[in-house]
C-alpha cells in the first residue's frame, strides 16, 4: 500500500521515473505474497502425500 501511495505522490510531483520504481516495487511485493500462499499450499499437499 505504501509503495502505491508513494507512486501517486511521485506522479503528482512529476517524478515519473520514481513513480515507475514505486509501482514496480508494489507489484513485486504483491507477486511475492501470491507466490508465498501458493508455495504453502504446495508444501502442505506434499506433506499430506508423504503422510507427515
Question: Would you kindly provide a written description of the structure presented here, covering whatever features stand out?
Answer:
With 52 residues, the protein is mostly helical. It is built from 2 helices and no strands. It has helices at 2-13, 16-50. It is rod-shaped and about 55 Å long. The relative contact order is 0.11. The mean pLDDT is 92.
Structure, briefly:
With 52 residues, the chain is mainly α. The protein contains 2 helices and no strands.
Gross geometry: rod-shaped
Largest sheet: none
Low-confidence runs of at least 5 consecutive residues: none
Order of helices and strands: HH
- Give the averaged pLDDT, no decimals: 92
Distance, first to last CA: 37 Å
Total number of beta strands: 0
Strand content: under 5%
In DSSP terms, counting alpha (H) and pi (I) runs of 4 or more, how many helices?
A: 2
> How much helix is in the residues?
over 70%
Class per helix and strand makeup: mainly alpha
Whole-angstrom Rg: 18 Å
What topology does this entry show?
Layout: H1 2-13, H2 16-50
Features:
0% strand; mainly alpha; 2 helices; rod-shaped; 52 residues
Amino acid at each position: 500500500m505504501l509503495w502505491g501511495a508513494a507512486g501517486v505522490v511521485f506522479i503528482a510531483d512529476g517524478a515519473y521515473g520514481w513513480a515507475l520504481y514505486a509501482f514496480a516495487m508494489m507489484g513485486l511485493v504483491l507477486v511475492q505474497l501470491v507466490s508465498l500462499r501458493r508455495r504453502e499450499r504446495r508444501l502442505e499437499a506434499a506433506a499430506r502425500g508423504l503422510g507427515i
